[in-house]
Amino acid sequence: MSAEAVATRAPERPALRELLGRWETLIAALILLTFVIGQALSDQFLTGDSLYTGALDLSEVALMALALALVVVAAEIDLSVASVLALSSAVMAELWNAGLPIEFIAPICIGVGALCGAFNGLLVTRLGLPSIAVTIGTLALFRGLAYVVIGDESVTDFPQYWTDTAFASVTGTSIPNTMVLFAVLAVAFAVLLHATPFGRSVFAIGANEEAARFSGIRVKRIKLTLFVLSGAVAALAGVVISLRNSTAAANVGQGFELAAVAAVVLGGVSIFGGRGTILGVVLALVLLGAIQKALTLAPGVSSFWVQIVTGALLIVSVLGPNIVARVREARARGPRNQEEGA
User: Fold this and answer.
1) 3-state DSSP call for residue 179?
2) Is residue 205 within 8 Å of 273, Cβ to Cβ?
3) pLDDT per residue over 54-69, tens digit each?
4) Cα-based distances in Å from 88 to 7, 80, 167, 250, 284
5) What single-letter DSSP state applies at residue 235?
6) 0.85 exceeded by the pTM?
7) Distance CA 79, CA 12 (A)
8) What is the rounded distance in angstroms from the CA atom of residue 69 to the CA atom of residue 189?
């Protein structure tokens, strides 16, 4: 082989090694493994109906995870997203009872969600409160407000056109319409995070907030914007789930915040901020959806295992990157120690 050929092929190895070492590659491999195991557990796993219902059931969590990913990259957290979803559903029910059309109700609900996000953001940025404490509090507050708005009642008489649209799939496919909405938002958030100055500022804040502030980044304004986005998207998810299930109520979405956080962290977004990709979050959502569907279809498996596995994956996804980082650091330190000893 000539020297020119070697020079041409040499750079490919580090690139391949880097690709194989990426967290997203590991998630993709786990998805394939889950598909194999899922089909082995039930021959219904890879059917069109199974993939359709699996994607449909994950729609709202998927929507919330997109905006939540940006919040976590900035080294913050929003645990109130599922309660904002419930409040949006309750407001939707009340406005529908008041005679407003869905075309007016949906933007109002999204606006309510944005206000909830702004409330969280102001407490974090203006009062300097930790976001985990703030959003644990508003998790209860917003859910309580949902019950104040509608009580224990539910509304089920939404227009059939909208409920059919939210429940239907793209013509000729097993792709739910809600997943089309998710795909559009995923592209939008990916561009925002990875291809704009705003996204670079989000990464800078998550990596080192003080350094970002000294470099001229308006940290408080950006964090407030992220919380507003998180609230608005959670409220959109509330509209979607109300139409998809043909039911608006204050008790919808309970526990969704755990699944959303699990998807974000499992997707490789560092819980300490400064690192993560929207692609990783999307792949993590596919993995979570596949695991949930496999466990649901598996004979003799309790539905509680879905919660157990979700919690276990959340713990592993936090521990995994830290362990890998420590191993790499130890390997890098080894040669230096040998050189010093020599």
Assistant:
1) helix
2) yes
3) 999 999 999 999 999 9
4) 59, 12, 19, 9, 26
5) H
6) yes
7) 42
8) 9
The backbone torsions φ and ψ at residue 82, rounded to the nearest 5 degrees and listed phi first, read -70, -30
Pick the CATH number of 50-297+305-317 from 1.10.20, 1.10.3470, 1.10.40, 3.30.1490: 1.10.3470
What's residue 7's pLDDT?
47
Q: Which two tokens stand for residue 276?
A: 């993560």
Residue found under tokens 């964090």: 223
Hey, how many other C-beta atoms are within 10 angstroms of the C-beta on 155? 19
Cβ atoms within 10 Å of 8's Cβ, excluding its own: 10
Which tens digit of pLDDT belongs to each residue from 201-231? 999 999 999 999 999 999 999 999 999 999 9
What is the rounded end-to-end Cα distance, in angstroms, of the chain?
37
Distance (Å, whole) CA 146 – CA 126: 26
Q: Which residue has the tokens 């994607």?
A: 55
CA-closest candidate to residue 77, choices 240, 218, 251, 269: 269
Backbone dihedral region for residue 42 (phi beyond 0: left; psi -120 to 50: alpha; all else: beta): beta
pLDDT band at 335 (very low <50, low <70, confident <90, very high): low
Mean pLDDT of 261-273: 91
Spell out the domain ranges in the chain.
50-297+305-317
